[in-house]
Amino acid sequence: MKIISSQGDPELATVYVAAFENDRIVEFVEAREPGVPKKDKWVMIVSTQLGCPVGCPMCDAGGQFRGNLTKNEILGQIDYLISLHPRQRVQDAKKLKIQFARMGEPSLNSGVLEVLKELPERYEAPGLIPCVATIAPEAGREWLDALINLRTKVYGGRLFQLQLSINSTDQKSRDRLMPVSKIPLEDLNLIAAKFYKGGPRKIALNFACAKDIPIDAAVIKKYFNPEICLVKITPLNPTERSAETGLETALPFDAPESCKDICNELSAAGFEVIVSIGDTKENEIGSNCGMAIKKRGIL
Questions:
Q1: What pLDDT was estimated at residue 290?
Q2: Structural domain boundaries, residue 55
Q3: Are 38 and 91 in contact (CB under 8 A)?
Q4: Which helix (H) or strand (E) holds 161?
Q5: Considering only CA atoms, which of 159, 172, 142 is closest in space to residue 202?
Q6: Is residue 29 a part of any domain in this protein?
Q7: Residue 110 falls within a domain, yes or no?
Q8: pTM for the complete prediction?
């Protein structure tokens, strides 16, 4: 793997663009929570595909999909980020969060399961927390079944985070935002319940708030169990694709109170609610999915 470029702020996020053989270009990120030392929380966000076949209208990672990354290409991203620091940091990190949430839909790549199976022994990190973020495409149903099995057999009671990108409770809006066949909400609740049996972390239902895109607390309550799921509310990030497709955030970065009504409704329904707004510097850095490669004219 050859690093082509890096940009960012070591106190927030650094984005790396790298090339594998045959001009296979990927991007990945090392990040931290502002004010939290890396020994307490160290975050890596890796790509799983070359581009993405889904083509969400708010994501710069879609377009010119060129296939899956191999197990070794995914591990190569993690290995590189670890190599930048003393080996002891892996052992000492209270939380080492490895997110499969960059370029690509992880449930469409069986290599991700191979990586997840290998992580605990490969890095021997007591604080390891894998995090899989997926839109749960219908084509990934068997993959999710395999993930549940792997989560139980390999990770036991260790922390493991699953994030389901729901984005809207209206089916037409969901189809607009994620233009592939998706597992129905009622089935996602069953998947969440099976995954949660491994404990001890609730499944996150993620909603990136966009103008004129419905989020109905009653629908969330109808389909999901607050005992096993929490709701994560985020802004819609300002990407080139969202500008092209006319999508705007309904949760301004400087106005977290704008989502208080839906948060109150969800809380009243028994859901734990996390409002995750982040830092506007991330937009300047280009640390949103696909932004670094898009700027290089690769996607």
A1: 47
A2: 2-290
A3: no
A4: strand 161-165
A5: 159
A6: yes
A7: yes
A8: 0.92
Give 144-195 pLDDT, tens digit per residue.
999 999 999 999 888 999 999 999 999 999 999 999 999 999 999 999 999 9
Question: Per the structure block, which two tokens stand in for 230?
Answer: 């929490």
Residues 61 and 45: beta-carbon distance below 8 Å: no
Within a domain: 201: yes
Most confident of 29-38, 135-144, 149-158, 278-287: 135-144
What total number of domains does the chain contain? 1
Beta-bridged to residue 206, according to DSSP, are 165, 232
**What mean pLDDT do residues 12-40 have?**
89
Instruction: Please list the residues that pair with 273 across neighbouring strands.
Output: 231
Order of all β-strands in the sheet with 273-275 = 2-9, 13-20, 24-31, 42-46, 96-100, 128-134, 161-165, 203-209, 229-235, 273-275
d(CA 73, CA 170): 37
Say how far apart CA 265 and CA 263 lie, in whole Å: 5
- CATH (domain of 281): 3.20.20.70
Per-residue pLDDT of 217-270, as tens digits, reads: 999 999 999 999 999 999 998 888 999 999 999 998 788 888 999 999 999 999
Cis before residue 200, ω within 30 degrees of 0? yes
- CA angle, corner 25, sides to 10 and 160, nearest 5? 60
Q: C-alpha distances in angstroms, 233 versus 37, 107, 165, 221, 275?
A: 25, 22, 11, 15, 5
The 3-state DSSP class for residue 68 equals strand
Q: Residue 55: inside a domain, yes or no?
A: yes
Q: Which two tokens stand for residue 34?
A: 């502002």
